[in-house]
Design a protein that fits this description.
With 70 residues, this protein is mostly helical. It has one domain. It contains four helices and no strands. Helix 1 runs antiparallel to helix 2, helix 2 runs antiparallel to helix 3 and helix 3 packs antiparallel against helix 4. The longest helix is centred in the middle third of the chain and has 18 residues. The radius of gyration is 11 Å and the shape is flat.
């Protein structure tokens, strides 16, 4: 994960910005170097999406399921 992405994630956490957290964890997942990291970030994005009732939860769940992480 780049320092810039990490800084944006930390700022989103500090601001309790659920929408940004979903977007940023998804971004981190799609730039991850391996499936372990990808699954970790996708899981975080999915949890934030579920907690906030965000429509992106369905897509995130599908991605996790395709990885065998459902």
């Amino acid at each position: 994960m780049s320092e810039t992405l990490e800084a944006r994630l930390l700022a989103a956490h500090a601001a309790h910005d659920q929408s940004a957290l979903i977007r940023l964890y998804s971004e981190a997942a799609h730039s991850a170097q391996n499936n372990t990291a990808r699954g970790f970030y996708l899981t975080h994005a999915y949890v934030f999406a579920l907690e906030s009732g965000d429509a992106r939860a369905e897509r995130l769940r599908a991605e996790l399921k395709a990885m065998g992480r459902d």
